[in-house]
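Quick look at the format.
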Amino acid sequence: MKHILLLTDFSDNSKNAIKYALNFFNDELCTFYLLYVQSSKSYTTDDLMTNGNTTVYDSIIKKSKHKLEKLIVSLTSEFTNKNHSFQAIVDYDSLTDSIKQIIKSKKIDLIVMGTNGVTGAKEVVFGSNTINVIRHINCNTLVIPEGFNYAKKPKDILLPLDANDSLQGAKFNELVKLIKRYKLLFHALRINPIGKPSVIENADTKTISDILKGKRFKYHIVSNIPMHYVVDGYLQTNTIDFMSLIVQKESLFERFFIGSPTTQISNKLRVPLLILHSN
């Protein structure tokens, strides 16, 4: 059974990400933990003093818990799936601290979240919550772009690689399991920024062939073109259902999405992004 943490702020964006997860894992036995983290900034002293007999906990948590349970009722009505069960969790903590505790206590396999927070600022594709989760939470995370609906079963996955990324290790093996389970066509896109001849191409193709055991894949190596241009062009010219990044310290994510070129690529994020954290 999979244990999946669904983050929500009750925005349309977060609800859309939840629905994507329910569709994607339609055939798998899953327990979904819906988490809403209440910020203290959203409550005033008047809110806490409304009822003299009401505890602070009730004032802060009870209303949000009721709202979360209503969301679960709505989801179970729309997705009548015997493979899926739900638990509502409301916490009054920092988002990352709350997530870390739940990952440990519930043995979470995957986090699913939308790209933006409640502000819904369209120009901010990766909101601060999304970036904090990716940077500080060591758990595989699936990020769903705003407005991206689950229309069909995914068939193609893209893994961008730069000169420092390796197709070895536990996290790449996890990706391979996903590829095999869902019968995905694997696209590997190696970016060589310096343009010098490299032996890595032969090593890559041998590794992929050995691990995928004869299954079809596409491999490309591109030189002297910035990563964000290459990936955006590839997404426009190929039918890719979602993309994956294997994140390390000083990671591809930081270079790809957070630095100066990120505005260009993140504003054009077209497909769900699966972040795999490599220790």
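Next, a different chain entirely:
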Amino acid sequence: MIPDDMVEEVRARADIVDIIGELVPLKKAGREYKANCPFHEERTPSFYVVPEKGFYKCFGCGKSGDVFSFVMERLGLDFVEAVKHVAGRCGVEVREVTRQREEEDPNRALYELNAFAREWFRERLVDPATGQAAQAYLKRRGIDAETAERFGLGWAPDEWRSLRDAAARHGLDEGLMEEVGLLSRSERTNEPFDRFRGRVIFPIEGTSGKVIAFGGRIIGAGDHKDSPKYLNSPETPIYHKGSNLYGLSWARHAIRREEAAIVVEGYMDVVSLAAHGFENVVAPLGTAMTPEQAKLLGRYAQRIYLLFDSDAAGLKATFRAGDTLLEERLHPSVVTLPPGEDPDTMVRNQGVEKLRAHLEDAVDVLDRKLQILDQKDFFSSIERIRSAVDRLLPTLRAAADPALRDIYVAKVADRTGVRRETLEAELRKASSGTARTLRPEATSSPAPSVPRVPKLGAERTLLLLMTKNTEYVERAGEQLETEDFVDPVYRAIFQALLDDPGLRAPPTAMDPVAAQRLQELLDDPEEISHAGRVFEDAVARVRVATLGRALRELDRRIEEAPDDARKLALTEEKARLSQEQRALAPDDWTTTARRLRADHNSNR
């Protein structure tokens, strides 16, 4: 690291006004300088630089710090890079940084294994004898040899021991290969075998450029008929999928240059767009956008274009990602593609200029929600307007930028006719974890209790409501995943309803048990009073149960964590999920549950 005395010399010699002034148009205001804040949108300047004290502060969003923290935040540099950047501006020569020797890195062996595997996969791809099928596949997808080399794409032959045997010849440890997910172990013979087989390989790099994991896309059926299309490395000491973005190590400089990032859904979208000249593209790693990924993007740009598939699942992922980005004070816009298109097919079939036109037509995430609700006639009646507000509130809550939230509230109030004061009161309640949906204003009479959930369990209640009103199918699909359902039969029914919201009979291919239970739901005559509130309550209960399972799994992983750093990261994740679970669970659930049990026992 850079010696402390040298850091202080650079700090003392740096002119903070000159350094910040290179990136922000400052205007003198007495003994200080002011500008519109570079970290959030605002109409009047609230960002001040105080040269006498060597710090900056924004009184709008609260960001503050010294010359180094500004450069780190604005240019996406780490501390050492920031010190070097400032030193270069003020003529100080920084002595060579003393780095920890590689042999002291406890994860060195894991990085070496991944580096070996990348080269081995790469050699299999470029070898005409082994890589012909993979080369033909990439060519069909518009990926030329130069792009494949740039991203280090490889090929895993459809063989059980090729990589394992090659690693053994180099004396590499099989146990560590299992740990990083290059080998799996047969349940029948307990014998290790190559985990990636018959797949085009996408190496995943950290921002340091080191390979931390792999993704594999299957081509051809072979003996993989029941295998997933994409197979990814498991979580390891060097790979945490929620904390990394595919393509960022290649795209970060372009993101800074363009002052915007394009976020797509998968590996192939990133590589395909890069092959067609779009350099500032990244993708989450098989998960919904996480706060850690949003923070990572925020180091390089504030504007984020969400370019997901045009289907219902893509739209759902878009709005989830948008809310996560808003929580980190970023500015997400939604790119809308024609039906049936995804970024890869769009750029290959329609051309670069067509995709650029769609990017230029991107709209703010809230505006896109309003457009869709308008298209679906959600502003035509009181009941549907109420439903529209429930769908818009999560985005209002997510907007951490005060100015942007103010704009959002004004737009929603104008479009729905709900008073601004009512919306703001709901947001205040939400911030304290006491509200989930818009409710009537309090009166002098006692507050109504949570509507009684029928004695069916939250999962069945939710499905029953979905069979009675297709609007609940769409809303449930926006808030829940199929995996949130514990009962596999209910899971199958949930998926069937998502596939066909107007389902009025079990699909012919459905499992007999699931078909029988679905028919029971379709035939159930029960009318549930206060259906909207019961729906929200049931969704929350399903989510709470999902979070409970995730917390138990985190407890297990914390116990097995290999080091303090990993244990700390898992503990922080547990705290975040616990907070989310508490916010979802109203205080009166326990009382309600006791009453429901009493009702049930009295009716037996």
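The chain has five domains: 4-90, 103-239, 248-361, 371-431, 458-602.

See the schema section for token definitions.
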